[in-house]
Write a structure and sequence with these properties.
By secondary structure, the chain is mainly α. Among the domains are: 60 residues, no CATH class; 86 residues, no CATH class; 203 residues, no CATH class. The relative contact order is 0.05. One of its GO terms (molecular function) is zinc ion binding. Its main location: nucleus. It holds the Pfam family Zn_clus.
Length: 686
């Protein structure tokens, strides 16, 4: 029987030229265009001068492949040999592979793979939208918020954008105004929003609340690897066991680490940042936490946030001097958006509970929101004093001027009394600023003398009223009472320093001499309290930055009075210089990181002290940091602190200047030179 010769089909003829072309063509095409992929498997649809070439290796170009119009129906073995593949309806193996016992693999179409990935992304986006909507509903009804999506855990969504995500910058803008609430009075902007949303192409896709932040869920300091769980627990313990009580326990109900990570990572970042600021061992943690906190604040600028974000901004405003004004301004804006002040009307019975939002109508939540509003008012007034600007919150709001109504509630706590004492004091100091004009550089007219006397009496009555109400705190001891005395001296200092405006070293007018003596006695009394009171000494690293800046201002004013008016006011200059030098030694001995205000203001005050001493030709400068403090203690002994102007014979004054100490930053004390002293431009900076 003759052996049959194999008949070669047109597609199976072993052509050497075709073989060479098959080996070289892919390289040539990739050299010309690395992403050039045929759009069709039909040979007749391609360039007739090009031969159909199939590569045995599929390059990893899935992400850049264009749309594929035909699905692959042949198995890999048949496609490799370019023969017809008879594939049954039930799938592999095909007839040829079954007959030859070959592995039959049917590659899925790249188009179907891309469609599957896109469908998964769309489903994930829909789930996130649904989760965010449920979260907003829970917040509005004061229910426990849902857990974070598992799909988002361990994944940095900022660096890995999700297709179809509704709150990307390129797909949606920021809202003109917050959504109106049922209890809100109709505002002019509401009409515009009602009209504009129907003409917006995204109105159907963007229901109210859809832009609620997702950045606050899933990612926090711990999941990002910034701090470990153990370090975070240490930072929280330091804050809640001590620091939070300087701020009237405003965050006492949020001490659980897991709760903070789940509900408000920005509040966790703020607490960790403030806590790390008050321990020299956590300098590297302070830098990392502060960087993360600022990042969260920036990312949330155009997003709706809850009370937790507002609380974080408020906490940071009291301690982070470099960003306090920005954070407080943002907090006040958010407080207005959520109508924080309405809870006060509910507490005093001025508003029907049915007309209030669920958060305002809840007694516990309403008290917390009122205390938070008062805290924002205090922070805003502090910054108004420190920076010579008008306050952002209106001081004539009912919630501010009706503080006595809140004070007389049966549920008033020790923290409430402390907060309201600040509100009452700052209302007086606000009147001083409005009447005497802190940003006016002209001398005060003599007609304002009786106003100064009146404000001084108001400060005396304020101190007498609240000093009888303060008690010892279980966490910070007698600091509330000592802090009240310090604030009383701050008020006298702020009132009395107004008479030095526009003098430029000229003698003080006789009708203002008593006010000038009041300012001098207050400044000296502040430094004597710091030096001789152990409670205040131990609280130097812990108290909010308002204390530190006012202490620095008191030293600055005291030095200027000694330099320009010591003869007219009969001041013992050597005694005052000894006092300031002793306090500066105390500042240098404090164990804190270089970013702390105590560490930053000591070098500037030392230079100012040296300049004044050299200008008056008294004292001597030599090495050693403890002799100033020792000289002051040796000469004062057990003198009564109520009389800060007692004379004594002291040792030669020395004013050490620590050249290795960190320099102060412009943003912390740059405004002190403008505290109505037009000729005091040196401030504390070199």
């Amino acid at each position: 029987m003759a052996k049959r010769k194999r008949q070669w089909s047109a597609t199976e003829v072993p052509n050497p030229e075709q073989s060479v072309t098959g080996r070289l063509s892919p390289n040539v095409e990739q050299h010309q265009s690395p992403f050039r992929v045929p759009q069709s498997n039909n040979v007749s649809e391609r360039n007739p001068q090009q031969r159909p070439v199939e590569s045995t290796a599929v390059p990893p170009l899935v992400e850049v492949l264009p749309s594929i119009t035909r699905k692959i129906t042949a198995c890999a073995a048949c496609r490799k040999n370019k023969i017809r593949c008879d594939m049954p309806e039930d799938g592999p193996p095909c007839v040829r592979c079954r007959r030859r016992s070959l592995s039959c693999v049917l590659n899925r179409s790249l188009q179907s793979l891309v469609e599957d990935v896109k469908n998964v992304e769309l489903v994930q986006s829909d789930l996130r939208n649904l989760h965010d909507t449920v979260d907003i509903i829970c917040q509005h009804l004061d229910l426990s918020r849902p857990k974070a999506l598992v799909v988002d855990r361990g994944k940095d969504r900022e660096n890995i954008p999700v297709s179809g995500e509704p709150d990307r910058e390129d797909s949606e803008g920021c809202e003109v105004s917050p959504p109106d609430s049922p209890s809100a009075v109709h505002a002019p902007i509401d009409t515009f929003l009602d009209i504009a949303k129907f003409g917006s192409p995204k109105s159907v896709e963007s229901p109210p609340g859809r832009r609620a932040s997702r950045a606050t869920h899933g990612d926090d300091l711990i999941t990002k690897g910034i701090v470990s769980i153990a370090v975070a627990e240490q930072l929280l313990h330091r804050y809640f066991s001590r620091l939070d009580h300087y701020l009237y326990g405003i965050c006492s109900e949020h001490h659980d680490l897991h709760q903070l990570r789940t509900t408000s990572p920005i509040l966790l970042a703020a607490i960790c940042t403030v806590s790390a600021l008050h321990d020299p061992q956590d300098q590297r943690y302070y830098a990392a936490c502060n960087r993360e906190f600022r990042s969260l604040v920036m990312r949330s600028m155009f997003e709706k946030r809850d009370v937790g974000c507002l609380r974080a901004l408020c906490i940071a405003s009291f301690w982070l001097a470099d960003a306090s004004r920005i954070l407080c301004s943002d907090a006040i804006r958010r407080a207005a958006d959520i109508r924080l002040h309405r809870s006060f009307d509910y507490l005093i019975g001025a508003r029907d509970p049915e007309s209030c939002s669920p958060s305002s109508a809840n007694p516990i939540a309403a008290v917390d929101r009122v205390r938070l509003w008062y805290l924002l008012f205090v922070c805003d007034q502090h910054l108004s004093i420190l920076h010579n600007r008008d306050s952002l919150l209106r001081s004539d709001k009912d919630i501010a001027v009706s503080w006595e109504t809140y004070l007389h509630r049966a549920e008033t706590t020790e923290s409430d009394i402390r907060i309201l004492s600040q509100v009452s004091l700052l209302l007086i100091m606000g009147q001083v600023r409005d009447v005497l004009g802190s940003d006016n550089q002209t001398p005060l007219p003599a007609t304002l003398t009786h106003h100064i006397t009146n404000y001084s009496r108001q400060l005396d009555k304020w101190f007498a009223k609240f000093s009888a109400l303060f008690i010892t705190n279980a966490y910070i001891g007698d600091f509330p009472r000592k802090g009240l005395e310090l604030h009383y001296q701050f008020g006298k200092l702020y009132l009395g320093h107004q008479v030095f405006k526009g003098l430029h070293g000229n003698p003080i007018p006789m009708h203002f001499v008593s006010a000038a003596n009041m300012a001098h006695d207050a400044a000296a009394g502040i430094y004597e309290m710091i030096l001789n009171d152990n409670q205040l000494t131990n609280s130097l690293v812990g108290m909010p930055h308002y204390f530190h800046i006012m202490i620095a201002f008191a030293g600055h004013l005291l030095l200027e009075i000694c330099h320009n008016h010591h003869e007219q006011l009969s001041i013992n200059v050597q005694e005052e210089f000894n006092l300031i030098g002793a306090v500066l030694d105390l500042f240098r001995s404090q164990n804190c990181i270089p970013q702390h205000p105590i560490r930053r203001m000591a070098p500037g005050l030392s230079r100012k002290l040296s300049t004044c001493a050299a200008g008056l030709g008294i004292g001597s400068l030599f090495d050693g940091h403890q002799s100033s403090q020792n000289a002051y203690i040796a000469t004062t002994g057990a003198q009564d602190l109520a009389n800060p102007s007692q004379n004594f014979d002291g040792q030669p004054v020395q004013f050490p200047v620590d050249s290795t100490a960190p320099q102060m930053d412009d943003f912390l004390f740059g405004d002190i030179g403008e505290f109505t002293f037009p000729d005091l431009t040196s401030s504390f900076l070199p």
